Amino acid sequence: QLPHRVVDVAKAKMLPASKPVQKEKELPPQPPPVVYEPPSFGRKDGAAYQVGKMLGKGGFAVCYEGYLATKNGNKRKYALKIVRSKMPTKMEQKFQTELQIHSKMNHQNIVQFLRAFSFESSTYLVLELCPNGSLMDMVKRRKGLTEPEVRFYSVQIAGAIKYMHGKGIIHRDLKMGNIFLDKDMNAKIGDFGLAALLVTGKDMQTIRRTTLCGTPNYIAPEILEKGKKGHDHMVDIWSLGIIMFAMLTSKPPFQSSTTDEIYRRAKNRDYEWPKSEASSKYISQEAKEVVATMLQEAELRPDPDTIVQHDFFVSGYVPTSAEITTRLRDYPPQGE
Ligand code: ADP
């Protein structure tokens, strides 16, 4: 096992600090204007999805809006995540994991998986549509969120983590770019491509894929260390700590120009909060404290329930969903 990991870390160093590798040729061809879901049991005639605008491209998938005409003449909107039916073996593996795990998830803060089917030479995942981009886009646009907004999103993400861990699922790739915003600006965790079912012993393939394909900013140091076992699910808590820091300050704590440097700083917990005089935003002691608890050694990190009982959450205001919707959905206002 050991040589594998040594090689992986060495390779990972050559990756750019923030962008996952993307090979255009592995993306699926442009979909036709209408795609047909083959008839299946419980459904005599196959559904026809009208393909709308492109939502985004990932490492090996392209997402489009898809409209399904309902009986009463309305249209229901979905996200169609499209991948080539024939993929290189490694990607096929990633995709199979994603399908198996994502299809079993049912939680208000996880992108709802509806079904998957093949049409022509592509595979389509029908997913709940998140029309407001990712948390990363929003945090960049707003240059950080207010503490009440950070509470709102952190509680939602912690709830989704609790749900996944309760089902024995570790996400392993939680980051702002994988958290999408639904029509009401609720957070929905998506992209289960690196998720793993918690089993005893480590799945080397998954670790390899995490170090090679994941963005290094969010990777917990123990993933890169040898011989640590037994607290695997705590990598998601580490990522939540990074996400909270990034929501508060608009950049991840260990951001550096090389992957090597990011890993080194993460291992040493070498991060600084912006100086209050230099920053327009005040960051409370409670916020700093709760983040620090999540960036400890795996066995010391709090579980999701403990996190949301921290003073940061208990003694501060948490906005209602309606307040978040009106405050954030149309930001920045037209014309700004
Ligand atoms: P990959 O697994 O290849 O990384 P992603 O799941 O990240 O692909 O999807 C690629 C892009 O498609 C995302 O960055 C996002 O812009 C968009 N996207 C993915 N899922 C949804 C969704 N449910 N609703 C809206 N847009 C989505």
Describe the fold and architecture.
This protein has helices at 2-12, 89-102, 135-142, 147-166, 204-213, 221-224, 234-249, 259-267, 285-294, 304-308, 311-314, 321-328; strands at 34-36, 48-57, 62-69, 75-84, 113-119, 122-128, 169-170, 179-181, 187-189, 196-197. Helix 1 (2-12) packs parallel to helix 5 (204-213) and helix 7 runs antiparallel to helix 9 (285-294). The radius of gyration is 20 Å and the shape is globular. The protein contains twelve helices and ten strands. The strands form three sheets. It has a six-stranded antiparallel beta sheet, with no helix packed on it. Strands 7-10 form a two-stranded antiparallel sheet. A two-stranded antiparallel sheet has the order 8-9. It is of the alpha+beta class and 336 residues long. The model is unreliable at 1-19 and 199-213 (pLDDT under 50). Bound molecules: adenosine-5'-diphosphate. The site of adenosine-5'-diphosphate has 19 residues, from strand 2, strand 4 and strand 6.
